[in-house]
Write a structure and sequence with these properties.
two-stranded antiparallel sheet, mainly alpha, 4 helices
Amino acid sequence: MRIHTDDELYRVDRVYLGPKGRRVPWRATYRAYGVWLVMVLLIGFVTFQIFPINASTVAAAFFSSIFLTIHVMKRLDSDRPLVTLPVMGWHELTAPRPQPQRHERHIVKLRIQRWPAGAEPRRRWWQRNREEH
């Protein structure tokens, strides 16, 4: 008896490699390109509101959007679609947390002792004898 699973559906890799004859050197799904486009627009809008538009801010927005897209896509698979990430983030932020424990105050008395100039402090139990050196 053979059992057929739906694994063949998930083996299909919907990847755009570029036009025929001119392949791109990376593999990215169509979903990754969409996430990247949204990231570029959001990061670009926020960045250009704060900083003036020049080559360094454009490059920073471009590369930070690539970095964020890679990290978002690492968390996505066929069982966890993109829609679940904001919901999961909201649940993580609004989840009830236990109250931090209150710490008791401890009072420590310190004593400052003055030493005359050039005087040797007394030997402590963890120090070696001065004669052993």
